[in-house]
């Protein structure tokens, strides 16, 4: 299947591991809402160099870490929410990325958010219900298109950047020690 480029098998009852044979021209994979388990193959989507890469593995039973090889992929949209993934998700972030939507919520991810930079055209960032620590980098306030933001239920600390004060308190609730509008003032 060398010319295969679009795979949509969402909302089935698929189980087992994700095969590592999808690479080259595949730019769209949606395996969300199944019963897939095991690790995300490091070779998944390797070889495709476009900026329109779409990957949704949401609501499965995946474990392990987000592959370091994802650092070399420009995901337009990536959704890994609702799994049991651990470790560092910062490979999905970075100023040079072209991502518009990133959702890694409801996992067991644990990394320091303090020095992370964000894709310039990011419109949606959902990292809630993880174990992410550190502070919120001021660079996030430079994102002109950011509309959806959820950093709740993590271990973040420090003042909320003033450019994020228009978001509701639910965006930042249940963190270790975030403070400032829209949460209680810093002491």
From TrEMBL:
Organism classification: Eukaryota, Viridiplantae, Streptophyta, Embryophyta, Tracheophyta
SUPFAM superfamilies on file: L domain-like (SSF52058)
Superkingdom of the source species: Eukaryota
Pfam family, one: LRR_1
UniProt xrefs under PANTHER family: POLYGALACTURONASE INHIBITOR 1, POLYGALACTURONASE INHIBITOR 1-RELATED
Name used for this protein in its record: Polygalacturonase inhibitor-like
Intracellular or extracellular location(s): Cell envelope
Organism: Iris pallida (Sweet iris)
